[in-house]
User: Fold this.
Amino acid sequence: MSCEFCSPPSPSLDDLGVIKEVDKGDMFSLTLRMPEDIEQALADFGNRTFPRFTPANIVVAGMGGSAIGGDIAYSLLRDELPVPLSVIRDYNIPAFIDRKTLFFAVSYSGNTEETLSAYREAKSKEARCIVISSGGRLKEIAGDDVFISLPSGMPPRFAFPYIFVPIVRSLESMGVVRKRNDWEETIELLRKLREDLAPHTPTPDNEAKKLAYSLRGKLPLIYASSPLLYGVALRWKTQINENAKAHTYVDFFSELHHNEIMAWESEEKVANFAVVLLRDKGENDRIKKRVEITKELIGDKAEIYEVWTKGESKMERVFSLLYLGDFLSLYLAVLYHKDPQEIDNINYIKQKLSALPSS
Ligand code: F6R
Assistant:
């Protein structure tokens, strides 16, 4: 019987020495401990209670690894949120924000200028603010606002559980959404999944390693089949960008049937694309049909990989694919010989901007 990944191509993702050599800051360990980080974040939030509050709208303001917790929270809670939730990644806030807004200002470092600016504007509009940060300037200007402290010393994108958990738990505590009872099963599922996805699990049994080999040297187009997975798709993109230093694009069903699908008519091969379909058993029946039509239209133009959520509850399903993407991004980093921790360009830009007078 032939086995495509029985003797994996070089560098071998089954060689733990190679992984150690590339992953200098040990981002694999941070990823492996996600189940415990969720547990810790729940414990940190504890029995904190907030007065009941029915906001007119909810805003999560942040950038990059600090913003994604808002996207994932929105994907998860979309079907039960009684009011709109927007993730704002900008210096300036929209006009609708006022004293009836629940405003989360999230910056891991506390020094991201866009978030600081948005937060200052939200304060001036008397929005009800919750600040989530490990310190920095954000903490200094938080004043009487609720401050949720993040553990220090982590790259922001790996602190995701510590950002996501308090957003969801705060909304529960205020009575905006029901109290969830699927944390425990989500943590258990992640514990099981990490065994399947960890570096010690050989390629033939490891979905993340197999996908990394398949996507190596290609431009992945991540297509999410359901709103439940929009945040996950964005997490895949940003993790691949930052950890593997690679381009990735994201699109969504069925919107992509109204524009992106036309690009597949092109005869110009501008890149070596590979399509990754993020799928969920709860996706809309019409979307299932649309996915089949898509495969029929583009199946001979690009390789198509399908990955499915695992678990029962929405949170389990969201986290199962998020976790696969996090591991995938690290394995791609190893294949590309890029230290996943390093984010030189991001730091360079921040440094340049901080040297300029603020406008
Ligand atoms: C770094 C990362 C970045 C930062 C972003 C904003 O790990 O993921 O995307 O999150 O540059 O910085 P913070 O999170 O400090 O506000």
Notes: The radius of gyration is 21 Å. The chain has a mean pLDDT of 96. The first helix runs from residue 16 to 22.
